[in-house]
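ARCHIVE RECORD
Type: protein–small molecule complex
Small molecule: S-adenosylmethionine
Source of inputs: curated submission
Record status: active
Notes field left blank by submitter.
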Amino acid sequence: MAALRSKLPTTDTETAQEFYGRWARLYDVISRRTPGIPALRRRVAAACELEPGDTVVEMGCGTGANLPYLREQVGPDGTVVGIDFTAPVLERARELTAEYDNVHVVRGDATQPPFRRGAAGGDRPLDEETDVDALLATFVVGMLDDPAGAVDDWCNLVGPDGNVVLANAARSDEWYSLPVNAVFRAIVVLSTPPTTKLRYENEPHLRLDRKIDAAHRRLRERSRAVADETHVFGIVRLTGGRLE
Ligand SMILES: C[S@@+](CC[C@H](N)C(=O)[O-])C[C@H]1O[C@@H](n2cnc3c(N)ncnc32)[C@H](O)[C@@H]1O
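STRUCTURE (tokenized, with ligand):
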């Protein structure tokens, strides 16, 4: 919470929180029940390459759709931390994970994590000795002003030999991409918070593509082993990196 307060919210940040707060229940249903999405969430959790007892952080966890899959990977002795800056989505994430005492949902800014590697912080469930073994961010970097910079910070938080996994929706490159991308563009336009920047943007899906490219490229640069995959008609790009 301290970290959140320390950064004055911009209009775009407030708009994003208002948008996801208002649609938390609907988003929760779509993000967990859309055909193909549960399998994707299981896959991104597996791509974190976790072992029982590990610690994993999810940035921008939303209503918590990935958290049960991450808990499955680390087991009862591991730790799962979900961070998001929108209070109503976190309430839903807490309900979803209430049965697990090792899944923690924290309000904070993903670009200013409320804890540092190997250091005690403010509102955080990790102690000084805890290393973060993996970090996951799904459908988040497209909302950040500096996606590559955030990926750098996340890699620094995890450290050598840890895993960082990104999954994001962008335009498909498949041969049948024309109709798929038309639907994708409509979804992006409808589901993008009406921020001051995007209000004047004719092609928000192109801007989203650029941000996602920048984030995934930076993760590849920071990794010594990389897994790149596409899912859901080529629209969802998954990059998993084992850090140098
Ligand atoms: C499209 S949703 C994705 C939620 C979840 N990762 C999923 O896969 O369903 C984006 C989420 O990122 C959160 N978010 C965006 N920017 C953030 C930031 N700087 N700090 C924390 N959360 C952020 C929003 O509140 C929202 O819940």
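CURATOR ANNOTATION: Confidence is low (pLDDT under 50) at residues 1-9, 119-123.
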